[in-house]
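Lab meeting prep.
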Amino acid sequence: MEFFSNFSWAVPQSFSDAVALCRFEEGDVLYDTSKAYDGSWGEAVKQITYFLQVRYPIRATSGEKGNVGGVFEKNWSSEVRIELYKNQEKVGIGQITTTQGRLYTAIWKGDLRKARISPLCSLRT
């Protein structure tokens, strides 16, 4: 499996549309390590410190056409809701509400706190 090389988290190439458009959608799961994709799940899960699952926005049925740069910028500040897990335990209660840009920054730079994705962020129940 191939991953984006410039991201701190393991972002598979299969997320190329989400990365290009800055739009992660319901059901997307991202792991902090490429080891999550190696071997059996029983062994891989031992290597994961953080992972997150996107709960909102719902998965689009068709992509927006046109200027990708404009779509990226528009999506950057749009809402996203996630559930964050540390050591296989859900962090907080409810969902963390943030922006696509902050989510993008968190998986790109690998710093949940600076991207304001942490238990101290806004939680939605």
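Slide two material, second protein:
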Amino acid sequence: MRKRVLFFCFAGLMSFMAYSQLSVVKMVGKNSGNSKLGFGAFAYWDIPLNDIGNRSVMIELLDFAYFPSRNSQLNSVIAYISIKAGFRYIFSEETKTGFYIEPSLGYCRVVSNEGPDGTYGDGLAVAGEAGYTIEVGQRGNNLNFGLKYETDMAGTNHTVSSIGFRVAYSFHLFRKRDE
């Protein structure tokens, strides 16, 4: 019981610093014909490497995608969850507004509900995101629009590739930007 309380306190504290968002995801490649358009959720930490914030280390605490089956008779579901670290490079020297690229690498778990018992596999997650970020307001807040390609390699039967459209708004409640 004590471990659970400590875990939830830690998770609550970290959620103030993490930016949680939603995405629309489409599976591509192997088994993509069996699934519909999916949805996802992600949360990340943005650790700036300079005063402007246009270069930063990204730690994706959670990246979850769910792909429902196209055939309702099969009741099969494919989903993945991954944790990754990457680097965001914004092509602007003065502000956080501009086009960006973000390669990342990490751990994944791919789950399949096909057959009588669900199966899963653990493996390597490789992702690349490209998009545009707009700085909003006086506190270093920004609005991100991005396309992300991710491949989760968790074994021969549990490899998933997907393309996702992400819209994210990250805001800082109590922090003022240094001028």
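Talking points for slide two:
The mean pLDDT is 80.
The helical segments are 2-17.
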